[in-house]
Write a structure and sequence with these properties.
Number of helices: 10
CATH topology of the largest domain: Rossmann fold
Oligomer: single chain
CATH architecture of the largest domain: 3-Layer(aba) Sandwich
Keywords: Oxidoreductase
GO molecular function: oxidoreductase activity
Strand content: 5-15%
Pfam family, one: adh_short
Distance between the termini: 28 Å
Enzyme class: oxidoreductase
Helix content: 40-55%
EC number: 1.1.1.-
């Protein structure tokens, strides 16, 4: 399927690894000029270099999306280097501290206040700051795509992930509101909802690490039972299972899809 993204400028947050990296690469392969945002400049630059080496156009646009002044700075850099932004993918959503810890998260009543604040700042305010920074470009162009990555925790709630569940649910509500406000501007807003994803950003030894298999990891074998598709495929979701959905939503093929939260979680939840 030709998605015809040539000439579009895409900004992807958290694009330095895992799902974000796959999204950057897929959008570039479809012809988009890609700005790779990541908190860590070296990761953003590495993905941008990968895209350029494959013949695509990309720049690194590092910065902390929880700081509105940082968002304004890297968005200005993208405009100057690539042009007005017409595709925004809000992918950043897990704090480095939480990813590094791994293991069983605490119950809500035992969750440190700082961890709750970080989760909300990254997922809710970070997404809002990025949307507010790029929507003027989309309105001026009369075309735009806002695609946010959420978790099934935001649709059904997950024990020991109360703050995260609430933050991801907020993204879904925000997206619906933006879809209603900007449909007249030919801007769509949608959410792609994920379950567990195996990728290189997961610490070795965790059940969802990229090299885990049902045969070598007992916990992973149990997890597969929660995902109808995973039981048949013998694996959890991979970044490439997500990036194709995002690229489709970014295209004119999805012009009449807006305000939706679309599960790409192998049937983990079917709301």
């Amino acid at each position: 399927m030709e998605l015809h993204l040539q000439g579009k400028v895409a900004l992807v947050t958290g694009g330095g690894q895992g799902v974000g990296r796959a999204i950057c690469r897929e959008l570039a392969a479809e012809g988009a000029k890609v700005a790779v945002n990541d908190l860590f400049p070296d990761r953003a630059e590495a993905v941008a270099q990968e895209i350029r080496a494959a013949g695509g156009q990309a720049i690194a646009a590092p910065g902390d999306i929880t700081k509105p002044e940082a968002v304004a700075a890297f968005v200005a850099k993208v405009r100057e280097s690539l042009g007005q932004i017409s595709i925004l993918v809000n992918n950043a959503g897990v704090t480095p501290e939480r990813r590094a810890k791994g293991g069983m998260p605490p119950l809500f009543i035992d969750t440190p206040e700082r961890e709750m604040h970080q989760t909300v700042e990254l997922n809710v305010f970070g997404t809002m700051y990025c949307c507010r920074a790029v929507l003027p470009d989309m309105v001026a162009l009369g075309w735009g795509r806002v695609i946010s990555i959420a978790s099934e925790a935001g649709r059904i709630g997950e024990a020991r992930l109360a703050a995260y569940s609430g933050a991801k649910a907020a993204i879904i509500g925000l997206t619906k509101a933006l879809a209603k406000e900007h449909g007249r501007d030919r801007i769509t807003a949608n959410v792609v909802v994920l379950g567990a994803v195996s990728h290189e950003g997961i610490a070795p030894g965790q059940a969802t690490s990229a090299d885990a298999t049902p045969e070598t990891n007992e916990r992973l074998a149990k997890m597969l039972n929660a995902y109808p598709s995973a039981k048949g495929l013998g694996r959890l979701s991979r970044p490439e299972d997500v990036s194709g959905v995002v690229a489709f939503l970014a295209s004119d093929r999805a012009a009449f899809i807006t305000g939706q939260h679309i599960g790409a979680s192998g049937g983990y939840a079917m709301p």
